[in-house]
Amino acid sequence: MPAKVFIKLLGLFVFLLLFQTVAMVFIIHHFVEQTAGNALRAVGWQVLWSVLIALVIALPLAAWISGKIADRLARVETFARRLADGELSARVSIAGSADEFSAMEAALNRTAERLDRDFAELESNRHELAAMLDAMQEAVVSLTPEGVVRWSNSVMQRIAGREILVGRSLVHSVRDPELLDCVRGALERGEICFGRASLLTPGQVFEISAAPLPSGGAVVVLHDVSTIESAHKSRRDFVANVSHELRTPLTSIQGYVETLIDHPDPSPQTTKEFLEIILKNAARMNRLTEDLLALASVESPNYKLAPQPTNASVIVKDAVQSLGGIVVDSGVKLQLAGAPQDLVMADPDAMNQVFGNLIENSLKYAKDGKRIRVGAVPHESGVEFFVQDFGPGIASEHLERIFERFYRVDKARSRESGGTGLGLAIVKHLVQAHGGRVWAESELGNGASFHFTLPLAQMNLIQRNLPKAGIAAQVPPATDSTPQMP
DSSP string of 195-246? Predict the structure, then answer.
């Protein structure tokens, strides 16, 4: 482009100069021929040589001026190409002279600066929007009218199980039919479609909202409702379980009461027998009610513990001594297996309830083994407590669910023994409220053991870590054995 401009300008200058020279030569030649005097003829030839000399001087000058103009046009062309390639920081260098070219170059620079600012603002807004969408809990994906992915946030990429590629059809990454139907409704019919997807991620349910975009395409938003669904299911199961647990003793009480009412003259022995059964079922309902209230209390956000530094050995001894009475008539021995002298943060009332539920639970299955061991051992930054029985044990498939509400390994045996199915759930919530962890270990035929941890008191935590720093710490020795309790 600049070379063509240079040639055109130079050619124009040369043409004008040659035209002027030819015209001057023709005029002077005609003037000389018509003039008789030698003096005038000499003047004519001098004028002619002057024109030729002027032509020789004007040609390089015209070439230089044409080159300068071509160079400035070349800079403008380079600037335009850089701008077209997206290099918005490009600018034209402005010459010192204040001519029309300089004004044009200044205007081009202002245009480039404005484009640069506008583009930077758009890019900033785009990044902010992307960051906002990535921070959302909902999954978002934008599609072209052909169903090709324009953009998706990190949540969508995570739940889809594979990377959703921009420029690739959504159907290549997602197989859920409900989601694809909603996308088709938004793209083909231009309608806002709603649905539920349950096949994107195992165990998760999403509410789908697909809406068409004014510029074409659609945007799809997925809201995870798995927690809500789980809560609804848990509530339904809870109501069903409570209703079932209450219906059994209520049916029994109602039957025996109706029998006593309908019998004209029941014998004292029959009356006593029926009343004992009624009392037993009423006691069962009372235990269920108490456990429900206890579970509701520990699950409440307003539930507050009163933990205090307590010797782990004292906790175990108090549990054995205070709960020994519940095993007196069972033929099972409650043994103290020893515990360290570490100080842990524990609420005494809560610990009494934890050990009471664990020992009562073990007692239902420990009659074959004839003994229950209660003890504690050091565990990382806390103390691990355990209650062990030597009964039939628990199958491995039950160990993960045994702390759920109303979950029973042996439903018939639990109901026969009067269990409510809430004791271990209460234990779990109480231990977690202390900042500990609870779990069960078992092997069929070799009994089961229930373990939970409590954090060390701050002072005892420092003492335990002193030997690691090369400083001798005086920690009282642990008691490994104590007299057994019948």
Answer: EEE-SSSTT--EEEEEEE-TTSSEEEEEEE-HHHHHHHHHHHHHHHHHHHHH
pLDDT higher than 60, residue 481: no
364 and 382 share one domain: yes
Determine the Cα–Cα distance for residues 337 and 319; give it in Å rounded to an integer: 12
Q: How many domains does the chain have?
A: 4
Contacts of 55 (CB under 8 A, 6+ apart): 17, 18, 21
Q: How far apart are CA 172 and CA 392, in angstroms?
A: 52
Q: What is the pTM of this model?
A: 0.52
DSSP SS3 for 307: coil
Contact 378, 475 (CB under 8 A): no
Length of the chain, in residues: 486
Token pair recorded at residue 141 = 């994906």
Same domain, 440 and 327: yes
At 267 the three-state DSSP class reads: coil
pLDDT tens per residue across span 286-327: 877 887 787 777 777 777 888 889 999 999 998 888 877 777
How far is Cα 101 from Cα 306, in angstroms, rounded to an integer? 85
Instruction: Establish if 12 belongs to a structural domain.
Output: yes
Spatial separation of the C-alpha atoms in residues 332 and 311, rounded to whole Å: 27
- End-to-end C-alpha distance for the chain, whole angstroms: 109
Closest CA to 354 of 450, 446, 277: 450
Task: Tell me if 83 is assigned to some domain.
Answer: yes
Any domain includes 169:
yes
Position 69 in a domain? yes
Per-residue model confidence as pLDDT tens digits over 243-286: 777 888 888 888 888 888 888 787 888 888 888 888 988 888 88
Could you count the other beta carbons within 10 Å of the beta carbon of residue 152? Answer: 23
Read off the tokens for 329: 């008539």
For residues 313 and 461, membership in a common domain is answered with: yes
> Residues near 292 by Cβ (< 8 Å), separated by ≥ 6?
242, 422
Mean pLDDT, residues 92-98: 67
Q: How far apart are CA 302 and CA 353, in angstroms?
A: 19
Q: Are 205 and 229 in contact (CB under 8 A)?
A: yes
Q: Which pair of tokens denotes residue 252?
A: 């029994």
Residue 156: give the domain boundaries: 136-224
Name the E strands within 312-432: 333-336, 343-346, 371-379, 382-389
* Mean pLDDT of the 229-239 span: 76
Q: Residue type for 413, please?
A: R
Each residue's pLDDT tens digit, 211-227: 998 878 898 888 888 88
